[in-house]
Amino acid sequence: MQRIVVAAGLYVAAGLAWAQSGPLVFGVLNQQSPQLTAERWNPVLQYLGEATGLSFQLKMGTTVLETDAMMGRGEFDLIFTNHNFQKEYDGVYKVIARLGSKPVHGTIAVLEDSPIKTLAQLNGKRVAYPSQEAFMAYAVPKVALIGAGIKEAEVFAGNQEGAMAQAVAGLADAVAANSRSLEQYAERKNLKFRSLYTSEPYYDLAIVVHPRVAKAKVQEIQKALTGMAHDPKARAILARSQLPGFEPATDKDYDNVRRVYRQMGQ
Predict the structure, then answer these.
(1) Alpha helices in 96-210, H assignment, sequence order
(2) Which runs of consecutive H residues, i.e. helices, occur in the chain?
(3) What is the DSSP letter of 266?
(4) Which of 88, 175, 67, 97 has the alpha carbon at shortest distance from 130?
(5) C-alpha dist (Å) from residue 250 to 28, 83, 96
(6) What's the distance, CA 172 to chain centroid?
(7) What is the mean pLDDT of residues 241-263?
């Protein structure tokens, strides 16, 4: 059974057996609303609980900044993010898996019928971002705009879904987004976007673990995560959650993410 407390964040209990020290707290970066996050991750954590015998509690702050601060305080045992590669947080959590799909891109896009045809035309225009803390949807496109000498008016929406909604509502002229998130949003809303800029490829968000989690537990979790794509029951869960499955990964896979953060002074 899931329990969502929107005012204080989001909590989802998953698994059949509670560990002696309580559930492992699993954080998720704020890319979607708490409700959509619960719909996506609750079935995954339920599966992991059944596969490992461990228990998981999904938890996130009400904003990206709050979730990052919680990570900085070590409140998560595991977290799905790439903000841990910022200098402030780097070196604590370790990568154990990543989304098992082709790399994603940072993109700056407009609705298909927009009169804006080139990146240069964004000079002085409104570009919607989730927040200044977003990697693929802020740091990557921002570095590109700065490099092109373009000064846009920043519009912040709180999360990627909100940023795309700003463009659709006409409150922004363009949106900066994770390419996969933009594709999924466009499909769900039956919309078409046109890209003005697409970055080099980056691996999508990683699942990282705090060093306090016992190695044996980490191995069981990694085995269950990376085995989901090969389990018919898990494949159905992944399909409903619009997740491509997970693959083993290491910190080194994210060196280009670190490089962009350092360019941004982060």
Answers:
(1) 140-147, 160-168, 179-189
(2) 34-52, 64-72, 140-147, 160-168, 179-189, 215-227, 232-240, 255-263
(3) -
(4) 175
(5) 19, 15, 6
(6) 22
(7) 93
DSSP state of 97: E
Q: How big is the chain by its Cα radius of gyration, in Å?
A: 18
Those residues with Cβ within 8 angstroms of residue 38's Cβ, 6 or more apart along the chain or in another chain? 2, 4, 10, 12, 58
Residue 48 DSSP class: H
Q: Tens digits of per-residue pLDDT, 29-86? A: 988 888 999 999 999 999 999 999 999 999 999 988 899 999 999 999 999 999 999 9
Q: Which residue do the tokens 């879904």 mark? A: 161
Residues 6+ away with beta carbon under 8 Å from 255: none
Q: What is residue 27's three-state secondary structure?
A: strand
Half-sphere exposure of 183 (CA within 13 A, CB side): 9
Q: Which distant-in-sequence residues (6+ apart) come within 8 Å of 237 by Cβ?
A: 43, 44, 47, 228
Residue type (1 letter), 238: L
> Is the pTM higher than 0.85?
no
Distance, first Cα to last Cα, the chain: 39
Report the amino acid identity of residue 251: D
Q: How many residues does the chain have?
A: 266
